[in-house]
Amino acid sequence: AVVSTQSGHYGRGGVGLSLHRHLPFSPYIWGLGKFMRLHGFVNTGSLESQPGELMAKPRVSVGSGLIIKVADRFKMEINYALPLLFAPGDTINRGFQFGIGINFL
3-state DSSP call for residue 52? Predict the structure, then answer.
């Protein structure tokens, strides 16, 4: 948990699960299978404005997408995400999203 006085929240927390799979065709077709993977994910997390709310009001989203390995440490993701549980006042963004990642390990 992180204590934050600027946002008015006491803490935050989150957990995610992601499953990766090779493309359903040979990696030698157009060479795409060597650096592309499919993945599915479930993410959950919350903010608490009162002590004890962190687990009582979680936000949950699911999705799937395509991971493209750009270089040894870099990747791009094109995902479709669907929020399942959210709180009143949250901004909901269903649909396609794009992300860039760096592997530090």
Answer: coil
Give the residues across from 67 on adjacent strands. Answer: 37, 77
Cα 65 from Cα 68, distance rounded (Å): 10
DSSP conformation class of 8: S
Q: In this structure, are residues 60 and 84 in contact, taking their beta carbons and an 8 Å threshold?
A: yes
Q: pLDDT tens for residues 10-65?
A: 677 788 999 988 887 766 777 777 788 999 999 988 877 666 666 677 889 999 99
57 burial (CB, 10 Å; 0-12 / 13-18 / 19+) is middle
| pLDDT of 93 | 85
At residue 34, the 3 state secondary structure works out as helix
Count of CB atoms situated within 10 Å of the CB of 9: 18
